[in-house]
Automatic annotation (TrEMBL):
One of its GO terms (biological process) is DNA repair. Residues 1269-1300 are annotated as: Disordered. SUPFAM superfamilies: ARM repeat (SSF48371). GO terms for molecular function: DNA polymerase binding. It comes from the Eukaryota. This is FANCI solenoid 4 domain-containing protein. PANTHER family: BC025462 PROTEIN, FANCONI ANEMIA GROUP I PROTEIN. Residues 124-304, 404-568, 887-1010, 1030-1268 form the FANCI solenoid domain. Residues 313-393, 586-787 form the FANCI helical domain. It holds the Pfam family FANCI_S3. Residues 1287-1300 have a biased composition (Basic and acidic residues).
Amino acid sequence: MEKLDVDSTMETTETETSRELSSTNLSFLNKDIIDIIKLFNSAKISELSELFDSCPEDKEEEEVKKILKSLLKRDVTQAVQFIMALFQASNSNYSIRHLKRKKTALFCFVKWLENSNSVIKQSTEKLISEIINFLIAELDSFSDIILIKVCDHVLDAIKKKKDICPQVFDIISSSLQILCSDKVLKADYKKSSYKDEFVTTLLSLEWEQNIAIHIISMLKDISLSKSQIETVSENIINRFDLLDISELPSAVYQLLLITKKGNKNSIITGIVEYFCKLEAANKTDTFEKTKNIKQIEGTIILQICLGMNLDHNLGTQFIKYMKETKTSNLTKFNVSLLLSMAKIHRYEDTIFDLLKSVILKCYKDKTRIQNSVWLNELYPFKPIDISELILSIAKDTTIGNEQVIQSMVKLGFILIDSMTILNPLFSKQLDKIPPKNEEKTPVDYTCKLGIHVIYKLFELHDMVRMSILDSIMSRIISKSSSIYKILELFEKIIKKCSNQIVPYHNKILECIDYISPLSSSMAKMLFEAIIPIINNNMNFKNTVLLNLRKRLYNKDSNSRQNALIGFIILLKSQCEIIKKTNSEDVQNSKNSKILIYEILGNVRRCFKQQPEIRLKLYEYLLTIIHEYEDIVPSIFEIVYSQFKDYLGDYDGNVVLKLSECTEGSDEPYIIEPLPYLLSVLTKAISIMVRTENLNVFSKLFDKCKDLIRQLIESICELDLEAFSINSNIDSTDICLGNLNYLYCLLLLGCQEALIEYVYRIGGYSSESAQTIMSINKRHNELMKLIKDKKKRLTGSNIDSSIFSFVFLSDIIDFIFSNDDIKYQNTMDIYKANPDFIQFLINIINSRLNNQFNDIQPHSDQDVEQYSIIARSLLYTFFENQDFSKPVIDLSNKVNKTQFTCILDCIIIMIKMIIKNYPEKLNEFISSITENNNESNIVYNISLQFKSMFELLISNEISMNSQAINIIDCIGKFSDLSYFDSNQKKIIKNWLLDICINNSIEDSSLAKAIIVQLFKLSDNDYDQELYFKIAKISSYIIGTILEDEEEVNLDFDMKIINKKTYSSILMTLYYNLNELLDEVEWSIEQIKTFLTRRKYKNNSNKDQLKNFEQKLYKKMKYVIVTLNTIEQAQLKGTIAENCIKLLSKTYKVLSSFLRLKLKDYKLIDPEYVEMMNMVSSSLTQDLYEFIFYLQKLDIEIAALNEANKKHKRGGNYKQKTKIVRESKMIPNLIYMVEIYERYLIQLTKKTGVNFLSVVKRSISRDFRIQVNEIDNEQTEEEEEEEEDDDDIVKKKFKTENDDSE
């Protein structure tokens, strides 16, 4: 191509410039340049044309060059006007001379732009834009060759890294558009346009930072083919690292404009993947740099969202990309982009559903890895900490990404609401606070994340605080299913954001108006949440008190109960303030005391309200007098005034007027829970005696104490008739019988309250022991009366004791552990009454079971009482406090019953600690064994449990229920990681030894042992436990093949016998199913990471290969076991579950094949061996198993047909079973054939012969509707390649036709 006749640079020396000026004298044909410009401004085009034409043609080009060079250096404004004048003069007549003149001016100006970016002043930028726009309009007048030369010249300038003015690319883009429309061809490129050559060359060059954005903008304006768009966009994204970070928003904006032409998916994924990579590379940056990056990312996210709002396909492509990659591409940038997109109504529901499912999946994956020993050790990829990711996004909203705040608030509430609906605890027990110490599930973690997100946003941003409070209030008022979690969030906000919450106190007051419909547990949480505001805001406190007073007189019982709860919680808070107040802060303490007296005055009115309100009041007062002894005298005064109304006189003796405590004639009921009232009174007296805090009630106290003494004497000495109880009531009189029964219950409770009172007042004296035994004697008589009448009487059966746990622990400790000689007489009195001791132990056992099952509440203080009780029982009934050495003769039936109850108590306490306070387990075990020197006390206890277990399962003792509890405890110790690998191995070998040598016939006990053995064997790849259990079970049941010779087993497990094999096989099924789930999940994780190419270094590749080989071993383990099971003569549920397990196994094997179809370059020998095992053994024996089941069904059907002659109707269960099996077997066959079709496909792709041991499938008497089943498995089929899928479907159809 002909080269341009222009200088390569514009650099000239000062001498040359002076010479040029002197030779031209700034004139054109002796005409002043200023005059030319005046002619141009006056629009005298004809005169201008004549002026320019008057110049000799051979000197014209040189003159124009000199003038333009001089003007561009001296005065850009005049140069611009001169160029415009020249073009207008040349446009009056189209000729070669005029075109040449314009070409010279154009090249001079372009040449100047290529070298003058640094010298162009800001004031002249607008002027340059005007001339460029002018020249763009004139480009059509130039020939294609000239335009090509201009483009080549600019490419050369880019290559040489000249000081290019970016605005020159506006000329280039317009030139290329003109060339593109004409389809100009270069000599070197006969099959492509010049534009293609230009774009290719441009992309191969290195771009300077100052022109990169303008080049991208230029490429955006050029019409590109589909392949060019892909190449250009990929090239631009690859250059992001070379750009200054402040220029990234402009680059992304230009890229988004390119998406109008196509390639949306590649561009949007390329952008987000770059920023994900940038995020990973800048984790250790300083705060200032991080802040800058976040602000840039926020701008880019806004740009992308704007583009998605204009082009919905862009947003659809990104959502599709996030769904396909599942959790592998969860980064702060991607999640922030999703949250920003959620503000677009079109995407809102889709994105929140996606985020909700992804977050839940992250927690499920994390839980799966944590709960599996082998996955925890070998999983090659780092699980995503979704909690840290989401919370870091919330934190980053203070330095950028403000647009995600509203969406994050919505997401937080969606997580709380949707996850609580998924939790079964909330659907069954909406009015009960969910236990805090239950094992956390992925649903719980997801809900907790929602709480943390909303709390964090409330703390950081005032703009969302009102909307958050509105959402909280609406859920409280409507009693939504998530109310407990909402109240938890509410409490957290108030306690930790005390300063931020101040402007919204009036808003919070609104919830108090709606406490009536709330349950007591909800009201309790609500008042506990707002206590900090009540204590710090006098107006708020007064408003709440006024509201509570009103509700205390409401007709609705629930409203009164909730008002009482509010008063009690407020009372406790004021007592806490007094306890924590310094001696100097007298005023604050005085105010709290005044409020306490006011509250006590209000709750005093509850004594005349419904029975349930009174009962709640007494229960609350019992807790308060134990925690806050300073207000006990005031409580004593109000309780005594209530109690004295129920005291009467019987022949000069003080008795209880039980008739005043009940109402109703036909159906009597209790209106005054007198035992609880008496319990409050007696505990108050005992505390006042101990603290000598009589206050101003000394006379009243003495009088009350004397009345209680007389009441005790009356109970011990008088007959039951003195208390209106008829021991000889007519059994036909149901009404009187019910009333008499209620009197008995009331008196029993009062007796227990007095027993505890006597013990507290009398201490360890023999007199108090004698009195307690006298009351207990009456108690036993009354219990005998209730026992005799219980079967004939109707009504409430309130048999729970009112003994406090502190009393129970103290008296048990005294009876069993006190060695002081001076109390020997007292202990002899107690020990002489074994029925009383057994009564106490039974109460403890019942109380512990109720607490363990969350029927009764428990507190942190109970842990100390557990330790005292367990230590006392262990000290008394076990030698040297060693579980392996009981000191009583268990062959005696009475001793065995007592020992059973004692052991149950100790075990249930250990399980309570494990369940609710696992961090205190070591301390608890050390306390009860009184051994603080051992480093691993839990393991030592487990060794003692081993000996105890062996004793319990012996034929002489046979305490299977307690043995199950011990095995369960050992398993819990292992779950809490109290054993190291060697200790686990010892426990596992012990369990294995039990299985081998003990013929246990209790199926529940056998199942418990096998379950723990499986857990401890989770990471054993080469052991044959599953196979051995399957082989022994098959031997016991019998095999399908009749002609098979009887085989003598080389191994045996006596625990597997005809009474236990079914439960053990079902346990084996469960573990195999769990193992298959883990393998299938692992395959999906490998497939996802292979798709995204997340592993890049050899160590990760080696780790992944090792992980795959472990999966092959696991699957071979499953295949051998199932092959053994399917040869057995299984029946009923065991056979049905085996069919389901086989179907799942083939499904997992198909997943293995699909994985290799995507990455088939390397086939491991272990993989080939696994597939050959399936084809040679599992599949072949499978059809024999199906024939056996069908033959069995025919025999059962014939038997049922014979029975129909004697009975009307058919066997419904048998019909249901037939229908069930008619679906299971075809589904299994389908899974097998799906597996085989993938096997054929993999054989063709890899060249490895997987079909050498495969036998042709047998014919069947049913047709598989392939289309219908394929529709049900759409998600699986979408993962396959389209071409391969079509081939397989055609082949599968052909094979089916052939076999039929």
